[in-house]
Amino acid sequence: MRALGQGSIASIVKVALTIAWWVLWAALAGVVLGAVAYGALHIMIGAGWVDASILTGGEGNVRVGGGGGDFHVTYDQPGGATWPVVAPALVIGAVMVIGALVIVGRLRRLFDSFTSGEPFRRENATHLRVIWITMLVMEVARYVLLAGVAGLFAAFGAPAGADADFSINIDLSTWLSIAVLVVLAEVFREGARMKEEQELTI
Fold it and tell me: Which among 48, 52, 121, 101 is positioned nearest to 80, based on CA atoms?
């Protein structure tokens, strides 16, 4: 099977990237819905419909309706969902999903040109550059968010039963991938320049 062109490996990868694109949009919708649901939970706690203990774990009640509550459910939640835990989790989820969307979106455009059999387009160098910059931002954001969560736990206390590990692990494979993409971006840029010069000469 050919690597480039219609019916090639590149066209199969393009289909896989399209599927990943829609899955990531669904994941982003899930993060947004999670944030909205958490905000709604705080509103219900403020209205007295839900016991505040649901945020720290333990037994509690959910009541909807007047008096004793027309709808009444008891729960026993062992974990905690205080804002120093949930807010960073939502931010981390949003950063990772949005970063992945940017990367997959650029890869889709890249493989569009591979499928058409024109790999050395000037915009392909731009796509690769955006991909490595996005990966760099995501990796740095991981360190910043980890430090932020550690600061929140230090200020407000870690939730009961939480197993928090704030040691920084440097992922060498990620940094190596970024370095490779930096080189490939320049290779594609130079290839596109040579192709344009060749076309002008002809």
Answer: 52
